[in-house]
Amino acid sequence: MTISKRALLAAGLTGLTLSALGATRPQLLITARIHTSWAALTPPLMALYAGLLAHHLHRDARSPRLRLRLWLTFTVVFFGQLALGLLGLSQFLMTGALHLPIPALIIAGPIWRGGGLFMVILFLSTLALVGPAWCSHLCYFGALDNLAAGVGSRRDRRPTPRWTRGLILAALITLALALRGASSAWPLGLALAFGGVGIGVILTASRRRRVMTHCLSYCPIGRLATALGRLSPFRMKVDVDACTRCGLCARVCAYDALSEADLSAGRAAPDACTLCRDCEPSCPHDALRFTAWGRRGPRISATFTVLIVSLHAIFLSVARI
After folding, report:
1. DSSP helix/strand/coil, 160
2. Residue 57's domain spans which residues?
3. Residue 306 maps to a domain
4. Is residue 155 part of a domain?
5. 23 lies in a domain?
């Protein structure tokens, strides 16, 4: 088997990043939290892991299921270390203290605390690199929503309302500002309630409709990701001349981003598409074009694969962030 260039690049990027992290802040590595001497194992092992993923992550019919498996792997590791922390192993908690794993708190938390911008910076940096792919590859709640929606043909083709996320985002920021200076009891209770409602949406609406209703209608971070994700050059375009409007791509899009209006406009819906790329293998006419700066080709696709696989491996290595 010939090792592809994207595999070598993903391995190199992952290994170098984790080596630098291990040299400066080794306490962030999961392995170092188990035993300090294990930290040196993380960069080479995760570099190998990233290289294998990048080599095998082709854009074919297997890609959507492989992406979901990788996404769920991160989710299981993330919530697994959280469970260990709650059981008394504080080294598995962020800075040794409990931080609720609710995506909306990426924004609401720093506003309420008046500081602590690490997750905000990480979120924005990821958006600059891979755009809204944060939602379809790296968000632990999104993986659960995708699992509930399933892989394959959508059952409910009614438009999923997306404007509701903007209202929820505005309400979230207003509430975080109003509660500044208050005791932690109220913010903690409201955060748990917000996360609980989100799980309820996943288990009911997303599961019933087979569309990612939580991400599209409830999650305020999803709204920010699709809006600020335009910082990234990556886009999913539609060749309107090659497209026959057969609807095969729309039936596999869990984000409801390829309606007839979107196809006619020549792009996936900018407020819904998260660059999961599950639609690409479904098009028999090669009408879906993954581009960067308006250009397409194997190098564009390979660059995105290297970036997203490397981020996956790095996030997996430091899952508590």
Report:
1. coil
2. 1-81+295-321
3. yes
4. no
5. yes
Radius of gyration of the chain measured on its C-alpha atoms: 20
Give dist(CA 215, CA 66) in Å, integer.
20
Contact call for residues 172 and 220 (beta carbons, < 8 A): yes
Backbone torsions φ then ψ of 84, nearest 5 degrees: -60, -40
Check: CB of residue 317 under 8 Å from CB of residue 48: no
51 in any annotated domain: yes
Sign of the torsion angle spanned by Cα atoms 285, 61, 76, 15? negative
Per the prediction, the chain carries an average pLDDT of 88
Q: What is the pLDDT of residue 289?
A: 92
CA distances from 103 to 123, 134, 149, 221, 224 (A): 10, 11, 19, 6, 11
Complete DSSP assignment for 182-212: S-THHHHHHHHHHHHHHHHHIIIIIHHHTS-
Which pair of tokens denotes residue 6?
A: 């994207």
Q: Hey, which bits of 2-131 come out as E strands?
A: none
CB atoms within 10 A of CB 285: 13
**Residues contacting 113, CB < 8 A, separation 6+:** none
User: Cβ atoms within 10 A of the Cβ of 169, count?
Assistant: 20
- Over the stretch 154-190, which tens digit does the pLDDT of each residue have? 666 677 899 999 999 999 999 999 988 777 788 888 8
Read off the pLDDT band of 1 (50, 70, 90).
very low
d(CA 274, CA 72): 17
Per the structure, the count of domains in the chain is 1
Residue 184 φ then ψ, to 5°:
-75, -10
What pTM value is reported for the model?
0.90
- Annotate 120-145 with three-state secondary structure: HHHHHHHHHHHCCHHHHHHCHHHHHH
Residue type, 285: H
- Angle of CA points 183, 91, 184, to nearest 5°: 5
